[in-house]
Amino acid sequence: MLIFSTIKRIALIVCNFYLFSMNIITGLETKNISYCGIPFEVLGNNSSEISYILIHGDEETARMLLKNHIKKNNGRAFIIKSKTREVPFGPTIVDPNRLFSNIGARRALKNFKSDWDRDELDNLLIELEEARVSFLFDIFPDKGGLLIALHNNFRGYNVEDELNDSELYSIKKDENPRDFVLCTNANDYQKLKDGPYNVVLQNRMKKNNNGSLSWAAIEHGIRYINIETRLGWLSQQRKMLQFVEKRLKK
To answer: What range defines the domain where residue 68 resides?
Structure first.
């Protein structure tokens, strides 16, 4: 048994060294983190002020774009390890992009389970709040950095659904309302508003928010941009991402 364990450890070391070497060759580092048990793959490196995130597993267009983009650009990409919109969480399932505020998380956890024991729900929310601090520390960029989220929609959701929560907006009559950019930083909005795409600014915290990552970014003063397009419109989302990065470098 001792010999077998030793051989097993050596094989594991060799395997890890091989994977590390392959990552060096490709220039792409990989690791894994989790948010209260929800797993994310981290690709890329820290040599850029820009980070990226994919938080809905069924948004395959955004996944394809992000994986391709991070191979060619510096930065880190946080990609949820799921193929579905909702993920297992405790005794239920939940939308992971509704867990970034206490009020949003409570509402989200009741969507698929209405018969919670009060103490069980409260304890889970406390656990989630503690995990949130660590996860946000991992994904939020350093001061002045930028976090870009990529999303796809396929249920009619569009920019008009965001106008009531927006301080400013620039809607283009020739653009599909389901393709838009959401900013949490006023300076970023000013640089993007005159471009060809629909752009909204949300930079004031609302207590009764839905728990999405954008609200956590607003609360913590993080520059955050959501690039939202229709599912399947890869070329459109790529153009929007290129536009955002190019315009914000000026």
So the answer is: 30-85+141-248
